[in-house]
Amino acid sequence: MTDSRFTVRNLASHELDEARDLVAAIFSDHSLTLKRRGSTLDYTHRHIQLDTCSFNFISYGPRVCINAKGLDANVMVQLTLSGYDYFRLGKREVLSTPEVATISGVDEPFAMCLSENCLKLAILLDRAELERHAAGMIGAPLRRPLEFQHVMDTGSRGGFVWMQTVQQIMADSGQGLASLLSFPLVRAQFEQMLFSGLLAWQPNTAIEQLQSMRGPTPDARPRHVRIADDYMRAHLDAPLTVEKLAEEAQVSVRLLYDGFARFLCTTPMRHLRALRLERVRMELLDPTQPHNVTSVALRWGFSQLGRFAAAYHRQYGELPSETLRRTRA
Description:
By secondary structure, the chain is α+β, with helices and mostly antiparallel strands. 45% of the residues lie in helices and 22% in strands.
């Protein structure tokens, strides 16, 4: 049996007030302003509505700023698919890129400044349904309203899997997806999978409650891999060797290599390079920092610029010069 509760709408406008009203009808009341006087709004919005959540692919064209008093009854996960935005929630400010997603909840004021041609995927999840699902997962009523850690690292194992699940399902948002999600059972299973993944992989108050009841859930990675990874992240600007990492983890170099291969599918030094490339990308995407590609690469230990550019391209699908060019546009 199928039904028509699954809907897809394509919205667009060049008028600021009209665009704001269209978005507010789905999200919440907010202000929308153009960052550069004289620029022309090019708002496009693909809205995909399910039973307890919706998916919104939104772009405004030129740089815009948004201020909202909070969401009425939803939790919002925002993934930046291209470009970047500065997201402020309370006193916390985050540079949101394809590697960093953000989560905001009910009655939490937030502000965003989106780059030119920034494409966002904003996922609205009904908080009441999320809380019912969370209570079912932990087997007890929630002691307080559900809240999530506001920053999601989409490069982490859980964040990456959750994001990839969403993007793969949403890759065909045309007739194929409409046909699939018109079946209530299929749609319900998809929504439950999203809820379970977000609750299991993103730190939140429900999981904290579960851990307090049963004790902490162990990290799947062995202790020496966690120690080496934590040490890398804390000392990315320091000259690190695999011997130093093994010493900090108190294991042999061979055991360290084996742990990274089995649990992270890489080597310690390749993992270190990927983490440093993340820092390079964050700097290149920050329009407030005066820099060039060479100086940023050298600062993070990449002295062979040709190999650096190739590794950057493999990891992000574009050259570092292209990233910097988009930031300056």
